[in-house]
Amino acid sequence: MEEQTVTQEKKALFTVDACYPEERYTKRLFIRTIRLPMKICKFIIPVIMAELLALTILDRKGTAVWSGILLLIAFFYVLIVFIMPLKAKKKYRAIHAAGEDRILYTYYEDSVRIKSPTVEALLKYSDAESYMENDKYLMLSFPFHRQVTISKENCDEEQLRFFRNIVPPEKQQKQEKKAAVLGWILIAICLIYALMLACEIKLALTHQTPAYSSDLPRTTYESFEACLMDGHVKDINIVNQRYLEYTFTGNKEEKRLYTYYDGNLSKLDSLLVYSYGSPYTQTTYESFVACLSHGTIKDVEIISDRFAEYTYTSPDTGVGERLYTIYENDTSTLTALLDFYNVNWNIRTPE
Length: 351
Prior knowledge:
By secondary structure, the protein is an alpha+beta fold. The chain has 3 domains: 2-204, no CATH class; 218-263, no CATH class; 281-348, Signal recognition particle alu RNA binding heterodimer, srp9/1 (2-Layer Sandwich), CATH 3.30.720. The chain has helices at residues 2-9, 23-26, 35-58, 63-97, 157-164, 169-206, 221-229, 265-276, 285-293, 331-340, and strands at 14-19, 102-107, 111-115, 120-124, 130-133, 137-142, 146-151, 218-219, 233-239, 243-248, 255-260, 281-283, 297-303, 307-313, 320-326, 345-348.
């Protein structure tokens, strides 16, 4: 109470009685050094959203992920750019209609008193953090989001000079430098992400599937491969390097079907050759491992990172038989297993 009384006894340098400018609510003012990065961001973010939309269309596997990111970014973009300004304008109109936008600034040598129908506060100049200005109004920023905002049309040149000199130059430069660093870091993050999305679009375009239509019933690739392993597939035709038309021979009937294959074509070719056209009998991988542990396997040939041909020697007759199996693990795991049992092996590429 004593401090307040002393302050009131101080001589006021000048007073400004004015209304809050509408821009105080509808158009946020940023510190000078961050304005350019903010303008660049407003351009980059729509570009990022356009890239995400393109990926949502092009990348079938990642549609859910890309569309989710797109919706999230679009939500915040619309919220910040459109919805918040509209709400701020509505708030200003309500305050103006109620007559609560009238404010009296009383400036002393070391502080400013703010008085309005809803707020009364005393702010010391030494607590001021930064100073911002545009062609319509001035704003002094204090801790805890407190601000002093005055329309320029309500001040003469001497008062404007006084207002500009409240924040020491070194303090203002420090805040401007901090804002600039944060702004350009934000720009760098946006540019890197936009570049990454551009690379994803290029990759998706290289894997685009040519147009294809068929009257044949469609099946899943997993179903096709299972039937292939069971020997119920023949007359396979690869279309546009992505679609497989084939004849299913199971259930005592033949039926022409097709499936979509989105994977490694070289492995698919190997699968077709060695599961359908191999001259040797296929065994399960579990049987192969069991025989390996019993020492009845030799001369293993690894083919296309998927197949293993080997000679099985019967412990009863001593007769060797050439067989093959399909292994699901990576080749290094298989070769380590063969080395553990001291079995000769080599890698062969199918012709």
